[in-house]
Amino acid sequence: MAEILPIKAWRYKEELSQSIEELTSPLFDVVSAKQREALYQNPINSIHLSVPRGDKPADTAADLLQEWKSAGTIIQDPLPGIYVYYQYFRLPGNDREYCRKGFICHIKAYDWNEGVLLRHENTIPSAVNDRIDLLDKTLMNTSATHGLYTDPNFILERYMDESIQSPLYVTEDYQGVRDVLAVIHDREVIKHFLEVLESRQVLLADGHHRYEGSLEYRKKRMVANPNHTGTEAYNYHLMYLTNTEADDLRILPTHRVLEKIDLTDEEFLERLRSYFVVTPKEDAYELNEVIVGKNWAFGLYLSGNAYKLRLKPEVHHLIDWPVPQEVKDLDLTVMHYFVFEKVLGIDREAQRDYPGLSYVRNFTACVSQVDSGKSRLALITNDVSMDQVKRVCHSGAIMPQKSTFFYPKTICGFLFSSIKENEFISSDTACL
């Protein structure tokens, strides 16, 4: 089903790679304004390609990319490879060290209706357009999206474990995560990776905007190419693939923060009571704890006051969105339907790009934004399970936007992949 290919990665030249931690950057959709400004001070940091500045940022990135190639700042690896990427991390309140194992490769940019690559959440249109323009101008993938394949037998892990013993890079990133990159050049092993994925579907975990950018770019090039074959470089996308069956695959909750609402606190709470049991709480910093393990339960921090919300089970059937039961049962569907649509009057489509609505992973940051007056309220939610992600993907439906936060995030700067024909490894030559 899923066609993957090795890549001839573009990487920083050897002398620069000795200080790789100074060249890496967070992904475009998680890097903060403060982080960006600090990273921009280094003229060769990867942030200049992934989140370029200027009135025409995509053009700026394209010009800079050509400069880096000409100056030898980045050099293309001479051999195609599968790039093994391990991330070692801990979670708050837990002494266990996790290791998320995966590998980076090209994958064909399948349309959603082909049923090979499955998505699980909505995208924000403005962010997709930004990624299309950047890809169009640079013909370079600056960071890998995160995909999931299912292999209960862990066939590929032994090859990855062997490869990671001889790393190209070892560094600690902005998350406190230890990132390790290695490469497999052995043709027979690469062929084995291709064969294993050939029979599998892929679930898109993280990077929906970047993937949709590649998908739309592929469609654009197909229309313009009367001799389209499906093997051209523009058909492919850079992806980091991990196994759904691994216990080290972690999903953290993503909370919702609203700058303002057109209701008084009393009016808002009264409307909520039509659908939820609303219980005041003394300590806002316990909101994430009082909802753990409880279905359709949320924390609300409103103008400095804390509440626990629990949906009245008898109203759940009122959800009339045209989605399967697997999606209706999700906490975030309940939140977006009853709080955003029914209570606040923001319809489903408008929620996708609603001004003043932000998505915040850090619970303390949610409370701080409300306390500082920057926001009116925060809605605290539980995490989504891997089983729920699988069920939604296979139902053919999607979750509300920003439903999952696969942790840790991959980083940008270890490698870049080109979709220029003369810099691309095609399916015909991948394992020759």
From TrEMBL:
Organism: Pontibacter virosus
Protein name as catalogued: Uncharacterized protein (DUF1015 family)
A Pfam family recorded for this sequence: DUF1015
PANTHER family per UniProt: DUF1015 DOMAIN-CONTAINING PROTEIN (PTHR36454:SF1), LMO2823 PROTEIN (PTHR36454)
InterPro entries: UCP033563
